[in-house]
Design goal:
The protein has 281 residues and is of the alpha+beta class. The protein is built from ten helices and seven strands. α6 runs antiparallel to α9. The protein is flat and about 90 Å long.
Length: 281
């Protein structure tokens, strides 16, 4: 009796483990690419700020960021006024937009979110928030079934249109079907760009057969070459990472000196301890 119960328990565990492994494949999101950002590259940050304001700030807000913080990027107040402010607001004001949130929800299905801290909010076990934004902006493809005509591998059925399509071109979705998970994962590893692996099923000869679908993108031709577009996206992500925490570099610099001071104090305290205890046996 005990052996029968134990055998049923083992089979149940195996079934649950198998289901969990298949569920992992089925729910696996797009593989993120590492964002090659450099927070010390001032030219990249300046170009990223320009692209962000020109392409992103039309619908999205950055309501926790002020224009005058761009002076940290070695821009003068006159340069900010002449090149980065188009609405007549003052340099000290927040980065807001004139779009009404109700209208935006009616047009896109949801009001565009604020982007100030997206680079931090999107951090997960799959990658940093910067990696997510970098992959997301490089994963749009044409999809006539969507209201905007666009879809995204990283964010399926996204309501946002591809605002950078003139720069990147119109990518097309490519799907490759595999009969085994091993072959599908091998193809996924061989793929250099953003890719997504999904598990599916089909009926063949009256039996349910597993199929693994690898989704990749075939890039289109835009105003920029693929390398130039990746560089532009890198600059945008670099700026959004800075915007999420403008004091990050200063915080790290101060933290370095604090650790040096604590290390020095440790040496002094240890010497003082040795002096107090030298005559005690």
């Amino acid at each position: 009796m005990v052996s029968i119960v134990f055998g049923r328990f083992i089979r149940a565990v195996v079934c649950v483990a198998s289901f969990a492994s298949f569920a992992t494949v089925a729910s696996e999101g797009a593989r993120l690419q590492t964002a090659p950002i450099n927070s010390h590259d001032v030219a990249s940050l300046q170009n990223g700020a320009k692209l962000f304001i020109n392409y992103c700030l039309n619908c999205h807000t950055a309501s926790y960021m002020r224009y005058n913080r761009l002076q940290d990027l070695e821009l003068t107040e006159a340069q900010i006024k002449d090149n980065l402010i188009f609405t007549g607001v003052k340099v000290g004001e927040l980065m807001q937009v004139g779009m009404d949130r109700k209208d935006a929800k009616a047009w896109f299905g949801v009001a565009p979110p604020d982007l100030t801290v997206t680079a931090r909010a999107r951090s997960s076990g799959a990658g940093t928030g910067s990696d997510w934004i970098f992959s997301y902006l490089r994963s749009f493809y044409r999809d006539p079934s969507r209201p905007t005509g666009w879809n995204n591998l990283v964010y399926p059925n996204v309501g946002m249109p591809h605002v950078l399509w003139q720069l990147s071109g119109q990518a097309q979705l490519h799907e490759e079907v595999f009969e085994s998970e091993h072959a599908a994962r091998a193809a996924l590893i061989a793929t250099k760009g953003v890719a997504q692996l999904e598990e599916g099923h089909e009926i063949k000869d009256g039996k349910t057969v597993e199929r693994f679908v690898l989704k990749t993108l075939t890039p289109g031709n835009g105003a920029l070459s693929h390398v130039e577009y990746d560089k532009a996206v890198t600059d945008i992500v670099n700026y959004m990472t800075y915007m999420a925490e403008p004091a990050r570099l200063e915080r790290r610099r101060v933290g370095f000196y604090v650790l040096m001071l604590l290390g020095l104090l440790l040496v002094l305290v240890y010497a003082l301890k040795k002096s107090y205890w030298k005559n005690i046996h």
